[in-house]
Structure formats: C-alpha cells, structure tokens
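Dear colleague,

Following up on yesterday's call, I've attached the two folding results inline so they're easy to grep. Please treat them as preliminary; we haven't cross-checked anything against experimental data yet. The first protein's sequence and structure tokens come first.
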Amino acid sequence: MCESDNKSENNSTAHISVFEQRAYIKIQTIHGKTVPEIHAELNEVCGTDTVDRSTVQRWHQRFRDGRISIDNNPRSGRPSTVTQDNTNAAILATLLDED
C-alpha cells in the first residue's frame, strides 16, 4: 500500500500506514536494530508521515518484551455505534424538520 509521490526513485517518499510502519518496527527489532536506526529508516521512506520516535520506542520495547501481535490492544467499554452515515442522516433529518 505505497503511493509514491512523483519524486525520483532514489529520493521518493511514500504513504505507509501506521500499521505497516508497526510491522516494519517489529521486523527491524527482531533484526536487532535500535530505535534511532529504525526511526531514521522510516523517516527516509515515509517523510512527514513517519510515526513519532516515541511510538517507535514504545513498539520496539513491546516487541523486545515478547509481544507478537502488531494489532492494537482491545479497548474496554462499549464499542462506538456512531458512524459518519448515522451522523449525516441525523443532521439531514434535523435540517428537514426545521422547514
């Protein structure tokens, strides 16, 4: 899922999702790379879309501690039931009722 931005092949930046960056952090952690090395490599490829260094540090530590999954942890509480479609429908209904 890379979308190159018309720069030269050697100096291009690409859109890499946070999830994909997390997978890269995991692989490089397994290879023994340090946080500054991983962050610099991500920054070289992702540019301004690079996750913060603190995020690299946090996931690097989790993988060093034995975490296997790159998925987010489940959140407590009731799942959100509000969607963009629900919100748009409610706004539209309200506007139509005002006439």
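Below is the second protein, in the same order (sequence, then structure):
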Amino acid sequence: MVRMTGQALDRGAGPVLLPDAGRAGPALPEGGAAGTPPARTTPTAAARATLALTLTTAVAPALWGTTYLVTTELLPEGRPLLAATLRALPAGLLLVLLTRRLPRGDWWWRAAVLGALNIGVFFALLFVAAYRLPGGVAATLGAVQPLVVAGLGALLLGQRVRVGTLLAGIAGVAGVALLVLRATARLDAVGVLAGLGGAVAMGLGVVLTARWGRPVPLLAFTGWQLTAGGLLLVPLVLAVEGVPPALDGAAVGGLAYLGVLGTALAYALWFRGVERLPAARVSFLGLLSPVVAAALGWVVLGQALNGWQLAGAVLALGALVAAQRGGSGATRRRAG
C-alpha cells in the first residue's frame, strides 16, 4: 500500500509515493532499487514534462474562451462587472477558507498588487473596452499581450527578446484580427486605451508573478489574488451597475461554472504555468481564448465562419505553437 504526500501536490509536483507505515521493509537509497544510483532527468523526459505543463496551462485560456457563451446565454444582460465580481470574490474567499493561509509581511501588498493587475484592474478595463468597442476590436487589442509580456520580461526579468517571439506575436495579433474583426468596426479612443491598458495590466501581472514567485501552496496563492481583485471590483459594481438584481437558476448555474472552473481552476493552472514556464511563452497561450470562443459560437450558437476567419484561427494557433517551440524548453523552479 502507498500514500501520497500533500506537500508535493501543493507545490504542483507529481504525487510522491511513500511506503505504507504498516509494512516493514529495507530502506532504499534515493533512485529506486537497492544499490542503483539516483535517476537523472533526460532531455526527453524534460521535454515531456514541459509539454504536459504547457497543455495543462492551456486549459486556463480555453476555459476563459467559454466565458462569452456562458455570459450571453445564462447571465443577466448589461452586468459584466457583476459577473466579474461574482466570478472572482466567492471563489477567492472559498480558496482562502479551505487553505487557511493569509499573507504575511510584504505579501499583503504583493497579493493586492497581483490581484489588482490579474483580476480587478484587468476586468474593469476589459469592461470599459467591451462597452465602447466592438467585440472584435477589444479581442484584437487583447491579443497584443504576448508582445507586452515579451517587453516587460526583458525589462523586469532580464529575458532576451527573440526575433521569433516578436514575429509570432505579430502573427497572433493578425490571426485574432482576421478571426473576430469586422470591416464595419469603429474605433473609440477611450475604448482603445482601455483595451490596451487591460493587456498591459495582465501582462505586468504575469511578469510580476514570475518575478516574485509564491510563498504558499498554489491554491492559497490563487485565493489571495481572486479575493483582492474581487474586493477591488465591489465598489465599481455598486457605482456603475447599482444594486445587483435577483438571480434565476440559470444565472446561478452559469456563475457557479465560471467561479469554480472558469476562475478558481483556470487561474490556479495559469499561475502554476507562469511560475514554471517562460512568461512570454505562457502569454501566447491566451490566443486560445478567442479561438475557443469563435468555435463555440459556430458549434453551439450556429454562427457562421468564413474563409478569412478560419485562416485567422489557423494563423493564431500557428503563432501559439511557434512561440512554444522557440527558446529553451526547460521549466523554471518556483521562485518563492
């Protein structure tokens, strides 16, 4: 019989198997059978581990891509800030209660900053952009985030900006533009600034998360940020949208899905990827969101996709794959 250590799972590693306490046996040296040297990680094993981590991190933007469908079909109309707050705050408080870990020292203000950048400010600016711009324009502005992260990574993390990364970032923006932008789209200066500001806010959040690491298990770290970001949104909801209306069963179900899967799980996977993979490469995974949203619109809502949109989806996914193949494939150790 074996049992798994919770500490290993908290740190995002695979389960560590320990001999059952009820059975006696000879102590084995690290590495396996008696007398054998410790196992070394081969390049192939490292590449497989990186691929597995990348795929699990990609689940986050894929889940975020379902937000549009859930919001339009299940949630109250004209309440995007309420939806954002109810996604973040309950999930954050639940994770804090379950993990029973609070910030200490500098991590009070660091958690507040990360929560504001990754959740509160990002959602608020996204709301402004969504209301003042067509959805295609807002999505295209959000697609510049990989380029933002590449620049901030060079400034704050000392990461070299590769030509391939810049080309992939430009291709990603072009692909999303082809996928979601319409010829009749109008531009609004405030909306454009808000869209770019949202991309910069989350991009800076990604880079600072990679720089600062985390001092606690992943779920506690995620709970801190969701709670801080949700609390920041509460006064905005009351000021802009007023007192929330009563929610029907469909809205409660939609919010439960967004809170548990689209926020708590998604952000936990996202932060785990940010701390272990190069920041610029992680940011390219965000290109999955508009692709998933468009695919669900076609499959579930019957929205037609023309040839240019399909080409845009292929271009965006190609940029994503190219960014993952570039540079070192090694994962980074947790910083704190």
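For the second protein, one point worth flagging: The CA atoms of residues 97 and 160 lie 40 Å apart.

Best wishes,
A.L.
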